[in-house]
Design brief:
binds adenosine-5'-triphosphate; alpha/beta; 7-stranded mixed sheet; globular; 27 helices; single chain
Length: 742
Amino acid sequence: MDSYQENYQEEIEYLRKALAFIEEEVEKEAKNLEEKKSDLIAARKDMYENTIHASSDFESLVDINLHSMQINNYISSYNPQRFKNLKKMINSPYFGRFDFIEKGCSEKENIYIGLYNLMDRNTGRVYVYDWRAPISSIFYRYELGEVMYDTPAGISRGDVSLKRQYKIWNSKLKYFFDCSVRITDEILQEVLSQNTSAKMKNIIETIQKEQDIIIRDRDHELLIVQGTAGSGKTSIALHRIAFLLYEGLNSNLRSNEVVILSPNTVFSHYISSVLPELGEENVEQSVFDDLISEVFQGRFGEETRDMQLETLIHSRGKTSGEVRRQSIDFKGSRVFKQILDRLLWYYAHRLIPFEDVYYNGTILATRQQLKNRFLHNEIGIPMAKQLKIIETFLLKKVHPLQKKRLQRLEKIVEKSEGHEFEIKSFSRLLAIRQAVAFRERIRKFTIVDYRDLYMLLFKNHGLLLKLARGLTLPETNKEIILTTLQNLQKGQVHYEDYAPLLYLKLKIEGNDVVSGIKHVVIDEAQDYTPLQYEVFRILYNNATYTVLGDIRQTIEKTADGLLYDDISEILNKGKMIKLSLNKGYRSTCEINTFAQALLGEGTQQGYASIERHGEEPKVIPQETLEAMDRSIVEDIAKFTEQGYESIAVICKTQGEAEKVFGRLKKSVQLTLIKPRGGEVTKGPLVIPTYMAKGLEFDVVIGYDVSKENYVSDFDRQLLYITCTRALHRLVIYYKGDKSPLI
Ligand SMILES: Nc1ncnc2c1ncn2[C@@H]1O[C@H](COP(=O)(O)OP(=O)(O)OP(=O)(O)O)[C@@H](O)[C@H]1O
């Protein structure tokens, strides 16, 4: 037998033993769960039959309590997760192995790596290590030779003599190879050459070293990643969450203490299956728009981010478009945050209309006393709560006086004509009216509304300028002030006003919105403004952060690396690090080169693409839109026949996407992806660029990339996003003249 045959036999034997062990465990676990379920049903039945259902008698209450405690114990011990994990492992229990001798030990260990730990608790034998276990990092970070890894007790060193990768499917060993003998990224190449699916997949078998460093980082409270398109940012974010939740780390982080901020609901659906695949459920995904509608409850109309982007893209080149763009930049800036802070200070110190408070001729508090009391706020109680305390203080003071007032009123009513038979009730009515009037009077200064305050900033033009002293305002500040005021007066606000309004609300009322979140993952970080980060800092005050973005994929603003400095200053965490990912994994070399060239000279520095080749992207002229439609229909048929499963026709705007969809659907079956829509399904679809962000498709067909349609720097960014969505094929159509950006 040659050595490959010997190894093969050994591996077959190991797989057989591992699978036999899993089968045994599955059986035990199923039995165990069945018993727990029966116990639970029996306990419920017992409680129902043997306890009184409603009682005020103490002994019965104790009895009910004991029963429900028992039931709760049964419920919490009923945990089907291990059973589910074992079932998943039957298909493919592990994907890698390395042979390791720990420094100071003589015995070599064969470490197999898989989705979860597989250990025989009776013998202590570990069949498979979870990919997240500290020792598994060796597999991702090293070739053969000396290695080290972090353990809870410090750094451990050793030597790796073999590294092997496996393809096991349906419990069968398809093949294996030693990484030291053949190219290491063979499996990676295979994975990347496959078609993409409607849902994002996990990458545990092929995590790359630079990605692993980010996934396993535990030293920093703020981890910022700038990564080029397709470098695996979203994948890393999700694997990092699974890593942080890994019980072996004793981090005590629970899935309900983690939140992922996603750009839109289509994207949320796209990534939703990765964490459950990795065995972690219940991680909340939040979209800023949803947070806004939850907090404001439709108070300010319904403008969403998609609507904002649509307007911006449509109005480029027009004066109104420039005002809107500057307004968005300004209202999301740190300068505007300073103005809002000054507004809050100014309101607190100068504008609250405190007044002397009298009741029944007695002074309860002078204006100055109230103001002093309000400003003497050393523990930083939010303004609205502080004013509420003052209101309660005044109402308490007035309470004993109201009795006296009632007596006086009764005397007055007695003397007045027409109420002889209802002295008491009429006096009480008068007293109530006076109490209401009193409350209303003091509420003129104890109630503060964030919207009114925001409006004040724009209503009084001089105020904004006064508060902005020493700060740089946008050129179009007068127009911005005017349009904002007009909107607010109509009861509407633009999307860019939501963050300032939320900021003011949180500062004024305090944060009762979210609590208990310990880790926040912000994907597509470039899409949020500094002011939105200020809001995140208040909302998730005690959390640590993973922030991932690509400044080249911004839409409405100029790409600017300084955003990361802003983020770091705003979130203000003691231990922070910024890392970069420069290698694209999604697209073929040809597509990557084409897309990078769009960004212009100098921007490709340090950029690398995975060595996967395919056809050159095609840029095809068309005489008319009808001819373009016909070619696209033919392309869809051709690519489908070639086996590509997801084909996206990417348009510049939603409006264009709707028109194109309306025409194409007469000849081919396809889906239109709408903002705030649900899942992206397989098959051909039409989608606007900004919705395609973060997603990927086997084939991308860029719609009408003509001189009229794509000309500015912002269009360049849109085009870059369009092209970087493609895995295998890219076709660009244009009518008339080609965009000068290509
Ligand atoms: N180590 C890896 N092994 C296998 N596939 C990988 C790896 N890293 C990334 N990929 C694949 O590359 C593609 C891009 O990954 P992902 O969407 O996470 O990148 P991204 O940086 O978030 O992209 P973008 O910013 O362009 O949306 C996905 O198909 C992902 O599965």
